[in-house]
Amino acid sequence: MTPGSASPAPDAPARRGAYAKGVAKREEILARSLEVIARSGYRGASVKELAEAAGLSQAGLLHYFGSKEELFTAILRKRDEVDSRSFGLDPEHPVVDDVRGGYVGIVQHNAEVPGLVQLFAQLSVDAADPEHPAHRFFLERNRLLREAFGASLARRQAEGRVTDRVGPDTLARLFQAVADGLQVQWMLEPDLDMAAIVGALFDLVERD
Amino acid sequence: MTPGSASPAPDAPARRGAYAKGVAKREEILARSLEVIARSGYRGASVKELAEAAGLSQAGLLHYFGSKEELFTAILRKRDEVDSRSFGLDPEHPVVDDVRGGYVGIVQHNAEVPGLVQLFAQLSVDAADPEHPAHRFFLERNRLLREAFGASLARRQAEGRVTDRVGPDTLARLFQAVADGLQVQWMLEPDLDMAAIVGALFDLVERD
DNA sequence: GTCTATACTCGGATAGAC
DNA sequence: GTCTATCCGAGTATAGAC
After folding, report:
1. For residues A181 and B186, is the Cβ–Cβ distance under 8 A?
2. Dihedral angle over CA of A151, A155, A158, A160, nearest 10
């Protein structure tokens, strides 16, 4: 994922009783899918592939997610949810003290899950179509991330620790663009040290 | 395209005599394809679609380009060639005086050809596969662009007009990542002012 | 809820006539 | 060099049995 985590529309019905099992299965499917993609990579992974990984037939899986696109959108959403927890970058509970460390940490983490990076990049492109199920997801997600990060930056600008040559919103946008763009370049050149470049951007904006 | 233009492996045999017509037709196909994509957008444009635009059948077109992927790679190459000329950003003849203006200009230009931006983004992702015909193209292209831009930056650093907090190579990489990342975000949010964000990055690195 | 089987669509590739 | 025709594969989606 792009640094920072957000889970717009957590989509967890968490219904009691009758639906409980179904929900659990859904979760399991997503968890497995994440594993498979993270490890084996996303080579235009087919629904069938992921179904098998979850011990289901293709049709069985599509019972839970209406279509391929919705499945993949759900996978990305799940990923954000997971990363959000493990990195404590939940927009509601930001680790205020070390934005830089957190951001760089996620970038480094991403370099260990090439398949997810690829899935993310692919879906980002597909989601340009307003009809794509992931369209709103990306819109919302990006906005949340920028808002959270922008708020941190504004705070640090007020403290005089970050340059105020550029406003916090634009700075946040800049960081987001760098993270997204680096991923694309990194897919092409896996040797690229994404964290170093992001670090350089911090060097540019941090004072002293 | 990402700001800056480069045409690695210009692939112009420009053979005389027998091949002349074939080459011309090839060029025409590319020119038409560019028009169509730039205007009507790249909705996973099919070979057939482009063939018709060039007044050819699908099979007829594939006579010139072996496969879909090679066709699209050639289109991108052609685009760089065209932009390279009209923006005078040819790495061999850089317009040294106004790097910022040139860079921002291209970004603005891109905002007028959404289809090409989309094609570029899509192919960037596909080309992650080392087997993809565009793989080398992107590698080479990106490198050339960074080298040219990095050289400009180094010069300006020496003059004290650009911060030397970060080395020129890393700075060039940063600009490239921003341009790529912004395109993805712009596809999602066409209202985004890409030029403004790029301008902000210049503000961050330029002194005084 | 899950499977098997199938249908259908899309698009790229290829053969062969002209 | 260009077309028509065909083929073929991939992959999603759906119908219907269990």
Report:
1. no
2. -120
| Per-residue pLDDT at B13 | 47
B108: containing domain = 17-205
Helix (H, G, I), strand (E, B) or coil at B70: helix
pLDDT digits (tens, 9 = 90+) for A14-49: 444 556 677 899 999 999 999 999 998 898 799 999
Q: A-chain residues within 8 Å CB-CB of B121?
A: 124-125, 184
Domain of B73, CATH number, reads 1.10.357.10
Task: Tell me the longest C-alpha to C-alpha distance in chain B.
Answer: 59
Q: Which of B201, B147, B204, B206 is nearest to B175 (CA)?
A: B201
* Number of domains making up chain A: 1
Q: Has residue B2 been placed in a domain? A: no
Residues 29-68 of chain B with CB under 8 A from chain A are: 43
Contact at CB, A200 and B174, closer than 8 angstroms: yes
**A27 sits in which H/E element:** helix A20-40
- The alpha-helical segments, DSSP class H, found in A41-134 are 47-53, 58-62, 68-87, 99-110, 114-126
Using CB atoms, which residue from B118, B176, B184 is nearest to A180? Answer: B184
